[in-house]
Amino acid sequence: MSERNDEALRELITFRVGEQEYGVDITDVREIRGWTPATPLPKTPGFVRGVINLRGTVLPIVDMAARMGSDMTDPTVRHVIVVVWIHGQLVGLLVDAVCDILPVRPDELQATPDLVGEADAFVEALFSTAERMVGVLRLPALLPRSELQAA
Question: Is it true that domain 3-150 has CATH number 2.40.50.180?
Answer without folding.
Answer: yes
